[in-house]
Specification:
two-stranded antiparallel ribbon; 663 residues; globular
Length: 663
């Protein structure tokens, strides 16, 4: 029992991290209506900033570096927290203020873009990603009742509790805090009373960024610094914020501390009982907390007043014509036969990426359900394919069919929560699922090969090997498979099921009143989308001939959602454009080679994503379609001959009289 208590107290460190980030999530949601999943990355970035300011006497800014004298600890902290406040203000002013009336999904994608920018800045601006944060809080061991725990765990928990208490006082007893609560309850009414939602949102962004930065500085010695690991702290933070219903700072802090302590106890039990899974069990707990909380509380997050979530971009009628599909296919074949080497490999990556993007078009663009776990379905199919081909020795087409069928079943299982929840709430659930499966399944060496990866034998048709992604045979095979899937999605839009999916997307209550089986449509839509993603995972396995868990990381899923929303989430053409722009795709690779972006590729892509989200919230495909329609309209418009001779003189005289009468 003493050892259980020992490990529980050791979990105070992680628990206070979850509590602090969860508090920031609540603050941003209440005042700005954004589930800010970039807070983990913000804390990570400020942690790096403080480490180099303290260790190297260098203030590393996003642009430029300032040499500083040897600052005392309190001064260095104030400087870094000022940087955090400035970054929060810039993120709100340049990105989220223009998107204030945008859909919840668009704001979520923008938060993904902020995360990508911060991660890229760390890689670019800091000499090493293994910086260490010097301890600030006293870490002397404390012994009582046979237990030994570092003092910094208690001090960190005390800091977070005090901050949460101050925020509670702020929101209950100050004019600014009461205005934030008023905006949360009814934004329109609060505006009529003279409150500025924009100013309050800016303050919330600055406050949550400072809170995340303070956490990154104080907790850095406990957690260490890593661009990916620290950014993923936001998932358990979302879980505890949901426990607090995105309203209560006190419940959020208590849930965060409790979750960290339980995770630490689970770590102890894993060491004591060998039959327990040794990988990812702790990371599954936040997902279970999210699901259980939503199931108990009714399956929805509290809305911000009377603000209605704007609709997703419209789905075009009819879809692409056979001529367009045929022309695109011929262009793809020509590129396969023309390109060689790494360019053909990049083209194959584009083709496979189009399939992932098509799955997002179906589940979000047509069905209206936010899923951030499409690469999880792809990974499930890919690793099952590897095991079926290498261990069970099944060949084509049986092994791919079984793998895709398993992905479909997983998609239907994920759709069960979607029967009660929707919108950004479902996005939070699928994000937790993606992290849980990645840590619990994909990183399990017994199931997926671990760091060594899983081998996938060469695809063979009628006894002939098609090679991998750089070979003509496999590139053509992937192109025809993806084209068939794209035609299927176009056909789906014209079917009765497709119409029902669009009705569910538009208004579930109206669709149910019209006699549509909402549960059946959602389950079917998720199954189709998961099948498309699973097919992409199968093709990716054959393309690379080896799969690793990094291929299906949660940030890969987030990147695909961001890119397809940018390209046009409600159009098949948007999926094609997104495939070209996806990491490793043809346009991505060509720009890297031509412009020699190299290490700047990631941050250029992230900033380009944010700029495009603000400039074209409907997607690149929609903007191209609008411009094309305008151009065709101009070309088809009949020309009116200029009047000449006596007729022209008469018209001119009548116009002059009309103007004089008007004036």
């Amino acid at each position: 029992m003493i050892e259980i208590l020992q490990f529980a107290l050791l979990g105070l460190g992680a628990g206070t991290i979850y509590a602090a980030l969860g508090t920031g999530v609540v603050l941003t949601y209440q005042a700005a209506g954004v589930i800010n999943i970039s807070l983990g990355a913000m804390g990570m970035y400020i942690g790096y900033t403080y480490a180099f300011l303290h260790n190297e006497d260098l203030l590393v800014l996003p642009i430029g570096t300032i040499a500083t004298p040897d600052l005392p600890v309190w001064a260095a902290m104030l400087v870094c927290l000022a940087v955090a406040a400035l970054l929060g203000l810039v993120a709100y002013a340049l990105v989220f203020r223009p998107l204030r009336s945008a859909s919840g999904l668009l704001k979520l994608v923008a938060a993904v873009g902020i995360t990508m920018v911060l991660q890229s800045l760390v890689v670019l601006r800091f000499p090493t990603t293994s910086a260490s944060v010097p301890p600030i809080l006293a870490n002397d061991p404390v012994r009582f009742g046979g237990l030994t725990v570092s003092w910094d765990r208690f001090l960190l928990a005390a800091v977070v509790i005090v901050v949460a208490a101050l925020l509670w006082v702020l929101t209950r007893f100050t004019r600014t805090g009461l205005a934030m609560r008023a905006v949360a309850e009814d934004e329109r009414a609060a505006t009529l009373l003279g409150h500025s939602p924009g100013r309050l949102s800016a303050l919330a962004w600055m406050g949550s960024s400072v809170l995340a930065g303070l956490l990154g500085i104080l907790a850095g010695p406990i957690t260490g610094l890593d661009p990916v690991t620290n950014s993923l702290f936001i998932v358990p933070a979302l879980a505890v914020a949901i426990v607090g219903r995105l309203r209560s700072f006190g419940i959020t802090v208590a849930a965060g501390i409790a979750l960290g302590m339980v995770q630490s106890v689970v770590l102890k039990l894993q060491g004591d009982y060998s039959w327990l899974p040794q990988t990812g069990l702790r990371e599954v707990l936040p997902f279970l907390v999210i699901v259980v909380t939503l199931a108990v509380s009714g399956g929805s997050l509290p809305s911000r007043g009377t603000e209605e979530d704007p609709r997703l971009p419209p789905v075009p009628r009819g879809g692409a014509s056979p001529v367009t599909v045929g022309t695109t296919l011929l262009a793809g074949v020509a590129l396969v036969l023309t390109l060689d080497g790494p360019y053909r490999t990049a083209l194959t990556t584009t083709v496979v990426s189009v399939l992932v993007c098509l799955s997002i078009v179906v589940v979000t663009g047509m069905l209206g359900q936010i899923s951030l776990a499409q690469m999880t379905f792809a990974g499930a199919a890919g690793f099952v394919l590897s095991n079926l081909t290498t261990r069970a020795h099944l060949g084509f087409p049986l092994a791919p069919l079984v793998a895709v069928a398993l992905a479909v079943l997983l998609g239907v299982a994920v759709a069960v929560p979607a029967l009660r929840i929707r919108g950004v709430t479902l996005g939070v659930v699928t994000l937790g699922l993606a992290v849980a499966v990645s840590e619990f399944v994909f990183k399990n060496p017994g199931w997926t090969g671990g760091m060594g990866g899983s081998r996938v034998p060469e695809l063979r048709l009628f006894g002939a090997g098609l090679g991998n992604g750089g070979d003509i045979g496999f590139a053509l095979f992937a192109l025809f498979v993806v084209t068939a899937c794209a035609v299927g999605v176009i056909w789906l839009r014209r079917t009765r099921l497709g119409g029902q999916m669009l009705m569910v997307r538009a208004n579930e209550r109206a669709a149910a009143a019209a006699g549509i089986n909402i549960a059946g449509v959602k389950l079917t839509g998720f199954g189709i989308a998961a099948g498309l993603a699973g097919t992409a995972g199968v093709l990716l396995g054959y393309q690379q001939e080896s799969l690793a868990f990094q291929n299906f990381d949660v940030f890969v899923s987030l990147t695909y959602v961001a890119v397809v929303y940018l390209a046009g989430i409600s159009r098949v053409s948007g999926a094609v454009i997104a495939g070209l722009m996806a990491p490793g795709g043809l346009v991505y690779y060509a720009l890297d080679r031509w412009l020699e972006l190299g290490k700047y590729n990631a941050i250029v892509s992230a900033i380009g994503l944010l700029l495009a989200l603000v400039a074209t919230p409907g997607g690149v495909a929609g903007e191209l379609d609008r411009q094309l329609r305008w151009l065709l309209g101009r070309l088809r418009r009949p020309t009116v001959p200029e009047p000449s001779g006596k007729q022209g003189a008469v018209l001119g005289e009548e116009t002059e009289h009309a103007v004089s009468r008007t004036t």
